[in-house]
């Protein structure tokens, strides 16, 4: 494999960071590279908020599930789906913008995810570690107030970036045959393949350094579907102008 493929396959989430700061200008360089991500109709419907104030970091940690690395990492970013800038640009052409469409929510969220993943790869190419923080959606209203987010903007996730103070193993991914289909959707072999994958994940958790976790992939899916996960999100998104019409 070439170096890019090796890098992509070596991704690990890093949750312990050293105190070493990023060199001056490196974050800006990484974000400029991340901006090369694909964007639907070139809307680039995202904003990235760099959180440097220790008080803001502490509040974000509290609002995002008490994840210590939010304060420890050299950099903490909040990625926001942002249709405000685009709405204002459209209005300057003389039209009355139509807002609140479900497609606008999808486009902004997808754009945000694409630029964030570009940034993750760029950071890892520079020897840095990252971890996504979906916990910002635990309290999106309070976080929006803290970060002064206007309507048509919402926090999708955060990202810690810094120099790793741990060396975790790469977590196995689903078998290729479960996610790559030929010509049409055929999942007749998925149950057998997922059973095999569950066994692989059990072995991974048992062998993982410093872990006493006993679980598998299927078991880890249960919390997402055994109750209503973040049921506040729909009401919050509507309040922010993403009405999903």
Automatic annotation (TrEMBL):
<dbReference type="Pfam" id="PF00881">
    <property type="entry name" value="Nitroreductase"/>
</dbReference>
<dbReference type="InterPro" id="IPR000415">
    <property type="entry name" value="Nitroreductase-like"/>
</dbReference>
<comment type="similarity">
    <text>Belongs to the flavin oxidoreductase frp family.</text>
</comment>
<dbReference type="InterPro" id="IPR016446">
    <property type="entry name" value="Flavin_OxRdtase_Frp"/>
</dbReference>
<dbReference type="GO" id="GO:0016491">
    <property type="term" value="F:oxidoreductase activity"/>
</dbReference>
<protein>
    <submittedName>
        <fullName>Nitroreductase</fullName>
    </submittedName>
</protein>
<keyword id="KW-0288">FMN</keyword>
<feature type="domain" description="Nitroreductase">
    <location>
        <begin position="9"/>
        <end position="163"/>
    </location>
</feature>
<keyword id="KW-0521">NADP</keyword>
<keyword id="KW-0285">Flavoprotein</keyword>
<keyword id="KW-0560">Oxidoreductase</keyword>
<dbReference type="InterPro" id="IPR029479">
    <property type="entry name" value="Nitroreductase"/>
</dbReference>
